Amino acid sequence: MSAIEQWFQYSYMTGLSELHEIDFALTELRIYLNRTPEDDMAIRQLKQLTEKREQIASKLASDCKSLQQAAVNEADVPPDSRI
């Protein structure tokens, strides 16, 4: 496994873990807000976590695209010229 692949795997798994944690918190906040819709602090937290989730998901998508492009570029190089 190349250094890029190792970095990507670590970064990807960390990002997925963060998404999982945020998704759990968002689910719990939504359940809470269904019972207590007037809680302004919970509404702010919901908005903040939603924005954070979008940022992480966007970064993961971008990283995946970058890795795919690197794999395509590497596939275009003849095997005997790879180091």
Tell me about this structure:
The protein has two helices and no strands. The protein has helices spanning 3-35, 40-75. It is mainly α and 83 residues long. The chain has one domain. The longest helix has 36 residues, at 40-75. Residues 16-75 form the Protein CotJB domain. This is Protein CotJB domain-containing protein. InterPro entries: CotJB_dom.
- The Rg value, from CA coordinates, equals 19 Å
User: How many strand elements?
Assistant: 0
- The average pLDDT value, as a whole number, equals 82
Instruction: Give the count of structural domains.
Output: 1
Indicate the low-confidence ranges by residue numbers.
none
Helix content: over 70%
Q: Tell me the series of helices and strands, N- to C-terminal.
A: HH
Tally the helices. 2
Largest sheet: none
- Alpha-carbon distance between the two ends: 13 Å
Question: What structural class should be given to the helix and strand makeup?
Answer: mainly alpha
What amount of the residues lies in strands? under 5%
Shape: elongated
Pfam family, one: CotJB
InterPro entries: CotJB_dom (IPR024207)
Domain Protein CotJB: 16-75
Protein name: Protein CotJB domain-containing protein
Q: What's the gist of this structure?
A:
The chain has helices at residues 3-35, 40-75. With 83 residues, it is mainly alpha-helical.
What brief labels describe this structure?
83 residues, mainly alpha, 2 helices, 83% helix, 0% strand, elongated
